[in-house]
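Structure ticket #2291
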Amino acid sequence: MEFRKIDDLFVNGFGEAVELEEIYLFPLLKGSDVAQNRINATDRYILVTQKFIGESTENIKTIAPKTGRYLEKCGQYLDNRKSKIYQNNPRFSIFGVGDYSFQPWKIAICGLYKKLDFRLIGEIANKPVIFDDTVYFLSFDSERVARQTFELLNSPAAINFYSAIVFWDEKRPIKSSILNCLNLEMLADSEFVTADAQR
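Resolution: structure written out below.
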């Protein structure tokens, strides 16, 4: 499901070059890309078969015949996935996908790196970016709101707050439970009050 794009071909993890329609392919950024600020371009792509959990995948072969044939060819590998997540779901299902996955603007951070570096990420090649499972992110339809939130998350108040509760010696120091501790609305209000008082 993961590819490198070379010219007009997509090369999968087996080293096979395949022709695929781009409708179900989205630019992929790994946690290391986010952490090292390689966020403006990528040659990695991921095949996303659904827009939401449980969506039928039957129409793929009609909308994108090459992609449908590729999925059928690789069907044995996908059918052998052991997780209960895939049971009683359409064939070629994925998980961890929803409306938030396809918003054009995202603020992302990698959970594996020992630094609080949030990145503001827009579309790549006019398509929303998908992340691997080491990345936590917020998604936005509005660039203005995304930029405002990005400024809040990089404010001294936010960085100091997170720095006080992160256990940096853990293998995955940045967790969703920690990131969710910050009330962005309260922070925005306090930042507004502070800025207004300084005028």
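Closing remark: Residues 184-198 form the longest helix (15 residues).
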